[in-house]
Amino acid sequence: MIEVVAPGPYATVQDLGRPGLAHLGVPCSGAADAPSLRLANRLVGNPEGLAGVELTFGMARLRFHDAAWVALAGAPLASGADMGAPFWVPAGAELRLGPPVWGLRTYLAVRGGIEVEPVLGSRSTDSLSGLGPAPLRPGTLLPVGRPLGEISADLAPPPGPRPAVLRILPGPRDDWFAPGAPAGLCARPYTVTQDSNRVGVRLRGPEVVRARRGELPSEGMVLGAVQVPPSGQPIVFLADHPPTGGYPVIGVVRAADVPVAAQLRPGDEVRFTLRG
């Protein structure tokens, strides 16, 4: 059992989500930066899909009622523990984690995984629909499962920050925008606003001008969709995005770059590109 002494600004339990249920109106959810959760799990010998803790801006304090192997991946923390290598936390110890040096989201995996009650096949907290466990708060108790494998990796040096450039595929509704709008989207940087969350990265910058009035009938939305509301300020959809939406999508961020978007902080600058 792990006791949450302090969750930091925002912390949730996440696995790889609830894929395949969008036709029922259920968002996929899951880790916003899925490769980092997968890595943290591999470092402690877990299957990649086991649940861990997603920390936003770090600053958590966790008390381990039982000894455990733990690993951290994602945004590197300034203090508290080494990144990219499994480490031992003795029974009764309190793990104190600092803020990230860069990036936004850090993933904590414990050998055996976090075993809160699953909902629709996943232990993920969905901030949009409310499915899954509530966000962590002081006093939350997180049960830990039994180990399922051996620890075979001892070190995965954390990479530095990737350039804040998001490769996009134009469409499917680029015809709703003024000629040259996709190229215009890529011409100048945008700033991440403080309204961003697990649903999407909200941006402020050059207006994306529409060629049509009105709105579309609601249609399916995908991870990485760049949706443009009437304000002309784009939103990049993340893990908790709605299954449908009525604002036109000018492009879709390539899957390999979604983790880059998930690590953007408010105030960061980001660019789009049609290359690659």
TrEMBL record:
List UniProt keywords, sorted A-Z.
ATP-binding, Hydrolase, Nucleotide-binding, Transferase
Kindly give the Gene3D superfamilies that the UniProt entry links to this protein: Cyclophilin-like (2.40.100.10)
What's the protein here called? Biotin-dependent carboxyltransferase
Instruction: Supply the SUPFAM superfamilies for this chain.
Output: Cyclophilin-like
GO terms (molecular function) for this protein are:
ATP binding; hydrolase activity; transferase activity
Key word Nuclease present in the record?
no
Keyword Nuclease listed: no
Coiled coil, from the record? none
Start and end residues of each Carboxyltransferase domain: 23-276
The cross-references to Pfam families, in alphabetical order and at most eight, read: CT_A_B (PF02626)
